Amino acid sequence: MVADVMPRLLGGALLATGGWGLGEYIADVWGPEYYVPLVLGLASGGAIIGLVATPRIAMRGARRISEQMRTIPTSRLLSGLVGLVLGLVIALLISIPVARTPGWAGTAVPIALSIFLAYVGGLVMFAPRRDVFRKLLDDPDHPSTNGVAKDTNSQVNVLLDTSAIIDGRIAGISSAGFLQGTLMIPKFVLDELRHVADSSDSMRRNRGRRGLEMLNQLRQEGRVRTEVIDSDYRNGMEIDRKLVELAKTLHASILTTDYNLNRVAQIEGVNVLNVNELANSVRPAVLPGEGMTLKIIQEGKEPGQGVGFLDDGTMVVVESGIEFLDRDADVTITRVLQTVAGCIIFAQPRRSQ
User: Fold this and answer.
1) Full domain range(s) for residue 243
2) What's the pTM?
3) Is 210 domain-assigned?
């Protein structure tokens, strides 16, 4: 209650004082007969606006500043502070001769130079590439830019993509203990997942609800820490771009099954944990020349092809396998095509001698 009342009183007092001063200034121009209505009207209006609007504006601004400060590494804050101080020092040196200029320029120019050079210095030194304190400080909350902790006590931050949440395999990976650190779910990812769960398309709706259930399961199991980040970027920016920019800011990895996001993030130097790559790496190796028994369940894209699936969902394309449709066939593997999106096996039927 006090946290809400105090900003109201402070904002009301400040705006009422400002309204009072504005009323006096206008009354001096228009005439003394307007003094009382102008001063009382503007002071009362300022007080009312301050009492009503200050908490919303102040709390929202303070919350955004707090969120941004929490996601920025300490080393970058120190670098920005050094740049700000350097800018002020340069402005002071330039302003010494300028301050001797008579008139308003002797006061206004040094102030403008101080503000401008302090802003430029802080902005330049705040850039990630100029983070001079990154190697000096061992910040456990902000791992290195490649997503690998600096030491064994550091924790890796992992941003969850919508595709990885809907995929659902993240729950099994977490239960097996292969995930370490903190799983971070940006609010804009949750919003996208909620839109999918509210879709009029039944398939999309079911996928969205499965993703929400999976997140709830992760939080209940507690094997890995999960955290929702209320950070957003300017409107109109694509979800993938927001994820990449946020990963750069947090020095975090991205967990996804999206092929395009995987490639874009890698190009921009962001570490990617691809669930499909993990599944492919732990899948039993299948080599050309090996034989297996497979049930052909559908036709392939090319004439005469038959398609079956292994127990783990891997597609097997059997040339001239259409004759075994809905039946088991003994096949010999001829080729294995491995991609980031998955694995496809090509085979030929084994003919009896």
Assistant:
1) 157-280
2) 0.46
3) yes
